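At this stage, I put together a protein sequence along with its fold in token form, as given directly below:
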Amino acid sequence: MLDVLKENYFFAVIRGKDENDAKEIARRAIEGGIRNIEITFSTPNAPQVIRDLTEEFENCDDVVIGAGTVMTVKLAKEAIVAGAKFLVSPHFSAEIQDVAKETKNLYFPGCATATEVVTAMEAGCSIIKIFPGGIVGPSFIKDIHGPIPQVDLMPSGGVSVANVADWKKAGACAVGIGSALAARVADDGYDSVTEIAKEFIAAVGE
């Protein structure tokens, strides 16, 4: 699963206004080539969205549905029961990592310092989310990889079509794309999500 997620490279971080909005953005992102779908718990009834998308794409081997903004153990368990294959949070929680290990799930916590990164690594987290990415910038990955070259880092927050190639060049194993993906939905409809997804993929030459 970890290999599939890294091969897919892009994580669509989806904060839907409602269940339908989240599912439409997810479908259009997948259509555009983004296969890792992170449904955040800021989406109304997120577990049901995760469940529905997991069932809808169960025959697509490279589509992986997970949960984002997992702030508590309770939410982690709800996400896993709904079918989430990975958990993402804006912070590191040893308790959430324990739940992930017990259920053979994957937990990607948000970190923004070397101490946080090492703490998450030592707890067994296989990918560390760099958050907020827009604050620390691509150079943070280069700086961390100096003393800790083996750590897999994924920026989230502040990743755009204009800078995604810089993140990859800096050594990001994956990137999380949030508001940029749905930026034109209000004006151009859900088809714009597919177009933006393709723009991101083209920007890194894949």
User: Anything to note?
Assistant: DSSP finds eleven helices and eight strands in the chain. The two ends are 20 Å apart (CA to CA). The beta strands are 10-14, 36-40, 64-68, 86-89, 106-111, 128-130, 153-155, 175-177.
